[in-house]
Amino acid sequence: MTFFDDLGQIKHGAEEILVETELVDRLKEGRRLRVKAGFDPTAPDLHLGHTVLINKLRQFQELGHEVMFLIGDFTGMIGDPTGKNITRKPLRREEVLENAAIYEHQIYKILDPEKTTVYFNSQWMAEMNAADLVHVAAKYTVARMLERDDFNKRYGSGQPIAIHEFLYPLIQGYDSVAMKADVELGGTDQKFNMLVGRELQKHYGQKPQVIITMPILEGLDGVQKMSKSLGNYIGISDPADEMFGKLMSISDDLMWRYFELLSFRSMYEIEKLKRDVSQGVNPRDVKFQLGQEIVTRFHDRAAADEAKANFVARFQKGCIPDDMPGVALDSVGGCLGIAFVLKGAGLTGSTSEAFRMIQQGAVRVDGERVTDRGMSFQAGSTHIFQIGKRRFARITVN
Questions:
Q1: What are the pLDDT digits (tens) for 169-220?
Q2: Cβ contacts of residue 363 below 8 Å, gap of 6+?
Q3: Please, how many CA atoms are within 13 Å of residue 312, restricted to the half-sphere of its CB?
Q4: Of 110, 239, 240, 268, which residue is the least packed, with the fewest Cβ within 10 Å?
Q5: Do residues 160 and 55 make contact, with C-beta atoms less than 8 angstroms apart?
Q6: Whole-angstrom Cα distance, residue 125 to residue 132?
Q7: In 253-390, where do the E strands start and end?
Q8: What are the C-alpha distances in Å from 63 to residues 23, 112, 250, 337, 350?
């Protein structure tokens, strides 16, 4: 492969590269680059949103570079305030360590363990005393911190910003110094923090890292970022049937976003699938291909084939309508009971009718018959609801 082939692969799917000319110069050196990506273990289990970034790390491995997977066990106790309009509640160390152990195990579903070095930022942060931390803090100004969008909005609206929240981007930046990173990967929401890393590396006499931002994957609702806390996620350790069913629940429009960010197919292949659909191929059949590819990656082909067969059987072999309506409902207190979901989506005329349909065994959610009248759905979740053989809707609870 030529240098230009490598550059083309790295750029594929990336949102932004800062600074691309610097990346070109480092690739031309012909040495193994030290490529960093950090994950805070603030919730157990990685999900498909995380894999957008991890897939790019795998690509760097395949190009011969050194991948450094950073588990932010120290920063996880601070809590990344990115995109939040309130102060984040820190996690207990026991929670962070438990989640970190799960992450360390799960990343090898994608990354080559022989080519991956796992770091924990407590390795260097635990050795710092108060004077050391003050020394790092002295290298960045409050004015620069307030340039970050979420901090700026909170400051402008009079909402509190705790001092420890300023430490988060500083420590993430210092991680790049400690790891001597050539390249850092992160979601678009991490751009500011990664730029802090560039600045700190300059202060410590290092060549500043190249930043590659990756797109944020929307969750099952198609609106908000995939997140376990929102319930709109697909975990990479989900059972095959559950993983396949969740993928089938996404809208036909969102399917293309998932193809582009999660599939290992080329853009040429994806564009061909789009043309096929525009010429009359059932989008559901194309979504089957996406579901089988993802389930195969995290389980195996046999599990993917079985998950598809089970899904089809649950929905009575092809009775899922091509023109299934999509409905979004607002929740009360973060969740919505099944009777209110069915009534709100127009699948039943009243909540009493919904309860009657449940009692008669006529209600299914993602193909599974519902017997629990008290069943509820968390905000951010999306499911396929069915009453009898003819009434269907893809419903998202917000």
A1: 888 899 999 999 999 999 988 888 899 999 999 999 999 999 999 999 998 8
A2: 338, 342, 354, 357, 369, 370, 385, 386, 387
A3: 14
A4: 268
A5: no
A6: 9
A7: 326-329, 335-337, 363-365, 368-369, 376-378, 382-387
A8: 14, 12, 33, 50, 59
